[in-house]
Design goal:
Layout lengths: L7 H22 L2 H9 L5 E2 H8 L3 H13 L3 E6 L2 E6 L6 H16 L4 H24 L4 H6 L4 H13 L7 E5 L7 H7 L2 E6 L2 H13 L5 E5 L2 H6 L4 E7 L8 H11 E12 L6 H6 L8 H10 L3 E9 L5 E8 L6
Parallel strand pairs: 4-5, 4-7, 5-6, 7-8
Antiparallel strand pairs: 1-3, 2-3, 8-10, 9-10
Helix pairs in contact: 1-4, 1-5, 3-4, 3-6, 12-14
Length: 335
C-alpha cells in the first residue's frame, strides 16, 4: 500500500529555501554602505564607476558590495552599450520574501541620504545633464536627421495627436518638455488656451520658436530651462507632454516626479518613448542616454510620483524599434 503521508524532507527543503533567501537578503542589507547604495538607487540607475565616484571608494570594493546585493536579488542589472547599470530590483521572489523587500525599500526611502553623498549624486546627475545638453546644442541642425534614424514624427505623430484628443480633461494650459522642432506644438496650441514649450538647450529652443513663428502660433511661452525651473515658477498644467524625452534624460524617474508636481488636479501626463532595445549606435548618433525602457519601468516611476496609469498604445517602427504611448493622470487634488 502506497503511503499518502506528505514528504517531510521536501517540506523542510522548501522551508529551508525560504529561510535561506530571507537570510541572504537580510545579510545583504545589513551593511551601512549597502543600505546607502540602495538609497542612491531609489529612482535611478548608475554604473559601477559612477557609484565609486558617489561613495569615493575603489572599484573592487564597490563591485564586491554590488555582487552581494545582486545575489540577494536586491539590485538588478541592465547593459546600456558598454556600461552595466545597477538599479533596485522591484521584483524579488514572491510571498513573504517580496513583502520583506518592499518593507525594506519603504524604510530606506524614508531615511535621509548622507549630505556628502547627496552632493556627489547631484554632481553625477549634473554631469549627465550637461553632456545631454551639449549634444543637442552641437547637433541642433541635425535633430530631424538623427530622429529619422529611429522614427520620424510623420511615422507616429498622428497616433500621438489622437492619443492627446482622447486624454484631454481640461483645456487651460499644456506644457511640452523638450519640444524638439515643435512638431506637436500646433496641435497643442489648437487644443489649449496656453502652451509652454520648455527646453534646456538654447539652440533647440531657438529653432523651435523660429518654426512656431513661421506657423503663426501665438499662444506659446518659450522657456529656457528644465522641469525644476517650471516648479519654481509654480506653473500648473492640465496636460504635460514628454515626447521622446526620457531616453535622453539622465534621471527619468526624477523628471516624471517633477512632471507630476506640475499637473493641475485631474491633469494628464502623456509619455511617448522607446521601448527597451539593444541598438547601441543610438548613443553616439542620436545622443540617447538610455536604450529605451520597459513599460513597467515607466509605470513604476509614475506610481512613485502618485500618478494613476491610464491608456497605453504600442507602435512598431523601422529597424525593430517600438514606441510606447502612455497616459497617466493626477488625482483630484494637485500633487
Amino acid at each position: 500500500m502506497t503511503s499518502s503521508k506528505p514528504n517531510s524532507t521536501a517540506s523542510q527543503d522548501a522551508g529551508s529555501l525560504d529561510i535561506s533567501a530571507i537570510t541572504t537578503l537580510s545579510k545583504a542589507a545589513g551593511d551601512p554602505l549597502r543600505m546607502q547604495v540602495l538609497k542612491v538607487l531609489q529612482q535611478n540607475a548608475y554604473g559601477v564607476l559612477e557609484l565609486c565616484q558617489i561613495f569615493d571608494i575603489r572599484q573592487s570594493a564597490m563591485s564586491h558590495h554590488l555582487k552581494i546585493l545582486a545575489n540577494a536579488g536586491l539590485v538588478a542589472t541592465r547593459r546600456e552599450g558598454t556600461t552595466i547599470f545597477y538599479r533596485r530590483n522591484p521584483r524579488n521572489g514572491n510571498g513573504e520574501l517580496q513583502q520583506l523587500q518592499q518593507a525594506l525599500f519603504a524604510s530606506i526611502d524614508k531615511a535621509d541620504l548622507d549630505s556628502a553623498l547627496e552632493e556627489h549624486l547631484k554632481q553625477i546627475n549634473a554631469e549627465r545633464a550637461a553632456a545631454s545638453v551639449e549634444f543637442f546644442n552641437r547637433n541642433v541642425s541635425r535633430f530631424e536627421e538623427n530622429q529619422d534614424l529611429i522614427a520620424s514624427w510623420s511615422d507616429y505623430g498622428d497616433s500621438v495627436e489622437s492619443f492627446l484628443g482622447s486624454s484631454i480633461v481640461a483645456t487651460g494650459t499644456a506644457i511640452e518638455v523638450g519640444p524638439g522642432y515643435g512638431q506637436f506644438l500646433s496641435k497643442l496650441c489648437a487644443s489649449f488656451d496656453q502652451v509652454v514649450a520648455l527646453d534646456n538647450s538654447a539652440e533647440m529652443l531657438e529653432q523651435c520658436q523660429s518654426r512656431a513663428d513661421q506657423q503663426g502660433l501665438e499662444n506659446i511661452e518659450f522657456i529656457l530651462g528644465d522641469t525644476s525651473l517650471a516648479q519654481q515658477r509654480h506653473i500648473k498644467a492640465d496636460c504635460l507632454s514628454l515626447n521622446m524625452v526620457l531616453h535622453h534624460n539622465p534621471a527619468p524617474a526624477e523628471i516624471i516626479a517633477h512632471c507630476a508636481s506640475l499637473l493641475a488636479p485631474q491633469g494628464v501626463l502623456l509619455v511617448t518613448d522607446l521601448c527597451a532595445h539593444d541598438q547601441e549606435w543610438v548613443k553616439e548618433s542620436c545622443g540617447d542616454f538610455w536604450l529605451g525602457f520597459e513599460p513597467e519601468e515607466i509605470t513604476h516611476w509614475a506610481n512613485l510620483a502618485g500618478l494613476v496609469e491610464g491608456n497605453s498604445l504600442y507602435l512598431t517602427q523601422r529597424n525593430g524599434f517600438r514606441i510606447q504611448l502612455r497616459q497617466f493622470s493626477a488625482g483630484s487634488t494637485a500633487i
